[in-house]
Amino acid sequence: MARRTLMRSIAVGGAAIAAPSLLTACAGGSSDGSVSNKGKKVAPWPTFTPAKGPTPDLAPTTEGVQAGFTKYPEKLVQAMAEKPGTGKQKIKVMSITYGTPPKPVGSNKYWQAINEALGVEVEFTVVPDPDFRAKMSTMMSGDDLPDIINIGGGYVLPREAQFVKSRCADLSEYLSGDAIKDYPNLAAIPTYAWEGMGRIAGKIYGVPVERAKPQGGMFINREAFDKAGYKPGLSADDFRAVANDASQGKKYALGASTVSYFGYLYHGTWHGAPNQYQYKDGKFTDMFGTEQFKAALEYMRTLRGDGSYNSDATSISQVDLKTQLYNGTVRSMTDGWGAAISNLQGIKDAYTLDIAEPYAVDGASAVYEQNRGCFGYTIIKKTSKDRIKLMLRVLDWLASPFGSKEYELSHYGVEGTHFAYNKDGDPIPTELGLVESSTNLPFRYLSDAPQVLYFPGYPAFTKRAHAWEQKVVPLLQPNARFGLQSETFNKQGAAMQQALEDGVTAVVSGRKKVADWDSYYAKWQSLGGKKALDEFLEEAEAAK
Questions:
Q1: Distance between CA 415 and CA 421 in Å, rounded?
Q2: Closest CA to 285 of 28, 534, 20, 527
Q3: pLDDT tens readout for residues 423-482
Q4: What is the pLDDT of residues 268-282, one digit of tens each?
Q5: Whether residue 228 is found in the same domain as residue 205
Q6: Same domain, 226 and 187
Q7: Phi/psi at 127 (5° precision)
Q8: Overall pTM surpassing 0.90 (yes/no)
Q9: Contact 105, 111 (CB under 8 A)
Q10: In-domain check, residue 386
Q11: Cβ-proximal residues to 106 (8 Å cutoff; 6+ apart), any chain
C-alpha cells in the first residue's frame, strides 16, 4: 500500500529514545559528515531509456497522466536473459509492509518462486507499518545491517541522509549516466523519480521505487456519496453538506487514522496552500504558516464537529481503517495509488470505488500534491563490488516492466497456484494468492517497474482513474523540498514534523482552537523550520 501520502515521524514513543545512539553510529563513518550538495561535484542522473512494452489502451501524457490498460497483455516478453544470481548466494533484505506477516519461506510457494527466479536465497524481514519507526531506529543504530533496505512509507527519519552516507554504498559509479545501461530496467525509471530521491553529498546512494506523480487520492464509496448529493468539483460548502449527509447511523463519510491526520495535506492544498514547500521568485516558503492552511484547519475542525470523521480518528491504525472502508463503516479515506487494487479487492464489489476531485474554495486556486515520484528509495550496505553488482541485478530484475514474465511473477505469483486467468485474460488471485502475495511479502517495495494504471478484473476503475488523472494532473504542484538536503531538516525533521502533526490533531479534534495553531507553527520554526528553509533555499539556488 503506497501512500503513504503523508510525511511521518520517527520521533514517537520508544523511537525517540533510540535517536542519540543513531547519531553516534553515523558520526564515525566518514571524515566529512556533510550531506549537502552545495559546492559538490554532483553525479549525473542515470540516462533514461524507456523499456519496451505493450501499447496501452489509454494513452499517457508527458505531464504525468499514466498509461492505462483495461486488459492484460496477451503476449508477455522475457525481460531478463539470465538470473541475477547463481543459486548459491544469500542476501538479507528489509522493507515496510501493510499486509499481514508472510508465511515462512519453507511453506510459501510465492517466496520460493521468487528465490528460484532470482537465483538468490532471499531472507526477507518485513516490518509492519505501526512498528516501522521503532524498527528503523533500532536497525540504523546497530551493527548488523541487512544487505538491502527500503526507506519507504513517507517517514521522516532522524539523520537519515547521514546514516545512508556513513553506512551504505555509493552507487554513482554503477548508476550515473550511461553506467546504468548495465541495468536496463533501472534505466527505465523516469528521471523525476531519481530527482525526488535526490543526491547525498553529490552522490547517488539509492534506487527509487517509482510512483505516479499524483499523490494518492481520497477514495470514496461512490454510491454513498452520490446519494448524499456528491458531484465532482462541488464547492467546499457543498462538500461539507455531502459529508454530513453521508455520516448517519454510525457511518462516517470521512475516514482518518493515527497516521493520516484527517487528510490535512489534501485539505490544505485544496484550500490553495502550497504543497508543503515551495521555491518561487528566489524564496523558499512553507504551507504551514499560510492563511490558506489555517482556513483548511478551520474547515477540517468543522467537519469533525459535524461528526463527518470517524469517532476513533485519533486512535485507529491505517490498517484497521481500511477494514472499516471495506465494510462500509467509513465511506472514504485518503490512501496511496498502490493501495487501489487491495481496496478494490477488499470491498468485494459491495460498492463502486472512485476518487474524489478537489472541492472548490471561494477565492482560492486549488493545487494537487505532486508526490516525490517514488515510494522512498532502496539502499545497499557497504560491501564488495561483486556483492553490490549482485544486488543491483536483483533490483534490476524486480524492476522488469509491466507486460513481462518477470513482472507477472513478482506481482501475481505462479499461474495456477497464486492466480488464474479469467475469461478476459486478467490474472485473478486464488485464495492462496491473497495470502502468498506481493502485499504480504512486498518484493515490489524493494524495486519496481514504472507504474501503469492496470487493475486486473476492474477495467472500469482503470477508466475512472485515467479520467481522474486527466482532471488533477494540470493542478499538480511539486513539493520543492524533495531531492534537496538540509542539515537542520535531517537532524530535526522528525521533531519538526511531530510538532505539526500534534497541532493538526489538537486543533481538528477540538482540543485547541484554530488561533492556537500559531504556537505550534512557532514551535516548528524554533525546532529548525526557519533554519531549514534557509538551507533548502541555498540548495535550490546551487542546483540552478
A1: 8
A2: 534
A3: 999 999 999 999 999 999 999 999 999 999 999 899 999 999 999 999 999 999 999 999
A4: 999 999 999 999 999
A5: no
A6: no
A7: -115, 115
A8: no
A9: yes
A10: yes
A11: none
